[in-house]
Design brief:
By secondary structure, the protein is of the alpha/beta class. The chain is about 30% helix and about 15% strand. It is built from nine helices and ten strands. Strands 1, 2, 3, 4, 5, 6, 7, 8, 9 and 10 form a ten-stranded mixed β-sheet that branches. Helix 8 packs parallel to helix 9 (about 255-270).
């Protein structure tokens, strides 16, 4: 990790010697929560939950992030690779449908080493749950170790991605990332109970006042990977509770029914299959408690 280049920022932080990178963390792996989680997409959470590990830190700085306590403040417990392996195996033994690694991009090298050790002992899929802001070169470290990719695709507009997440080059990297993810895992496949075993599920959070960006995101996805072989998760859960009062006015309200339905129509026109959310999903109640 000396001169770290794991994420697209390639900030060059000497994290091995404790320097803090743009991801807000240094040399320690930090996890904020490891427990079954029941609020992912239906074929991921299923009936037993997804064995979710929330990693502290993040390579983006989204104004509206609902997990700011861990993404920016890096609240979490420091663990070494051996302890992380034990945590993952113990979580798998609880009967969850999968192991779900949330925002681990800035730990990819070490997580890959851990997965290499424990993968032969796992009988459930491994999910890589990320912002979509990834370097394909880094993702290749996960070849054969990750079964399901669950990335966001937030923006096409560089103006929005710069203003809202501090990453004007977001679209370029997210587009290359989903292509690499699909190359690794191929078309979606499910078990006899409808639980996802392999494949690519792309999330898009519909932001208030950003319908044009959402339509462009869906078109970019459809031009990059085959819509029939992936799943789209069109999220309506944006809530302004986490945005600062100084944020642009559109981020200080929820998405309207009209806005969401217009984006949904675009998804249907592009022949996406997948998941939508009800209006009631836009609440802080679905945010995990990182104090437990």
């Amino acid at each position: 990790m000396s001169a770290c280049v794991l994420c697209p920022h390639q900030c060059g932080a000497d994290r091995e010697n404790g320097e803090i990178g743009l991801c807000h963390v240094g040399d320690k792996i930090r996890i904020a929560r490891a427990a079954p989680h029941h609020f992912e997409e239906p074929p991921i959470s299923g009936t037993k939950g997804s064995g979710t590990v929330f990693f502290a830190g993040c390579s983006l700085s989204c104004l509206f992030c609902q997990n700011q306590k861990i993404s920016r403040e890096a609240v979490g417990r420091a663990v070494d690779e051996e302890e992380l392996a034990e945590i993952l195996l113990a979580l798998a033994d609880t009967g969850v449908h999968n192991l779900n690694l949330v925002t681990a991009t800035h730990y990819t090298d070490r997580v890959a080493r851990v997965l290499t050790r424990i993968k032969p002992r796992l009988k459930i899929p491994v999910v890589w749950n990320s912002s979509g802001y990834e370097r394909p070169e880094t993702l290749r470290l996960l070849q054969g170790l990750v079964d399901i990719y669950l990335p966001d695709f937030k923006y096409v507009s560089p103006t929005l991605s710069a203003a809202y997440s501090g990453a004007p080059d977001y679209c370029r990297y997210a587009t290359a990332a989903i292509a690499e993810m699909y190359r690794q895992v191929g078309p979606v496949s499910f078990d006899e109970n409808g639980i996802l075993q392999r494949g690519l599920v792309i999330r898009h959070l519909v932001l208030p006042g950003c319908r044009e960006n959402a339509a462009a995101v869906l078109k970019t996805i459809s031009d990059t990977v085959p819509t029939a072989h992936i799943r789209l998760s069109l999220l309506r859960q944006y809530t302004p509770d986490f945005a600062p009062r100084s944020a642009p006015k559109n981020l200080l309200r929820r998405v309207t029914t009209y806005e969401y339905e217009q984006v949904l129509k675009k998804a249907l026109l592009l022949d996406f299959d997948g998941f939508k959310q009800k209006k009631g999903s836009a609440t802080v109640g679905y945010t995990p408690d990182f104090d437990i």
